[in-house]
Design brief:
The chain has no helices and 15 strands. It is an all-beta fold. It has 3 domains: 34 residues, no CATH class; 82 residues, Efflux pump adaptor protein, beta barrel domain (Elongation Factor Tu (Ef-tu), domain 3); 71 residues, conserved putative lor/sdh protein from methanococcus maripaludis s2 fold. Strands 5, 6, 7, 8, 9 and 10 form a 6-stranded antiparallel beta sheet that branches. The chain has a 3-stranded antiparallel beta sheet with strand order 11-15-14, with no helix packed on it. The N and C termini lie far apart (84 Å). The model has no long low-confidence stretch (mean pLDDT 86).
Length: 199
């Protein structure tokens, strides 16, 4: 039997289970309907197959921009966009059984000759973006129990001074500071123990 591929590309033989071993297909092996034993990859149009925690997938949209980094090439970063988001989840291997992973496909917008199939990558998807004059770590922001604006402690000639700031978008580690800071100022990552003298 001969099988003809519908497109030009690189043939990647997929591992199959023979007994207790993972191996490649050989003459005499039996294939079952739907069993994958080979992929044809177009090197000029590469995709990334990824899985996202079900709690985060609602933030993703088809067409959203992303950055792909390659474990084998730490200096290589390529732009991509979300091509499709799956509808059905699967139980994750590294997560609890009650959490599902949703398959997400991304298409690379730019190619590099070092990129070959089956490389391991990490992906950062841009769900929101904002240009601000400063980006600061989340730990420098403080907020009292009473309603009010967040504030920071700025190092001055007489110690630490409290100053309110306007905050924009933030994630788990960083926040955009829209106003209230000047370039080169030093901020406290912990609440200073000494008495604060406000200017």
């Amino acid at each position: 039997m001969s099988v003809k591929a519908p497109l030009d590309g690189i043939a990647l033989v997929q591992p199959i289970v023979r007994g207790t071993d993972f191996t490649t297909i050989q003459a005499g092996d039996q294939l079952y309907p739907g069993q994958q034993f080979m992929k044809i990859v177009d090197p000029n149009s590469m995709i990334v197959n990824a899985f996202v925690n079900q709690a985060d997938v609602e933030l993703l949209r088809v067409g959203a921009r992303a950055h792909v980094r390659f474990d084998a090439y730490p200096d290589l970063e390529l732009p991509a966009h979300i091509y499709s988001v799956g509808a059905l989840g699967r139980t994750g291997r590294a997560r609890a059984s009650f959490l599902s992973e949703i398959p997400v496909t991304l298409r690379l917008d730019k190619m590099d000759p070092r990129v070959i199939p089956d490389l391991s990558v990490s992906v950062d998807v841009i769900v929101e973006a904002e240009a601000g004059p400063a980006v600061a770590p989340r730990e420098v922001l403080f907020l009292d129990a009473a309603p009010g604006n967040p504030y920071v402690f700025v190092q001055g000639p007489y110690g630490w001074a409290r100053r309110e700031v306007s905050v924009g978008l933030m994630n788990n580690t960083e926040a955009v500071i829209r106003s209230g800071l000047r370039p080169g100022e030093v901020l406290a990552a912990e609440r200073p123990p000494e008495r604060i003298k406000n200017p």
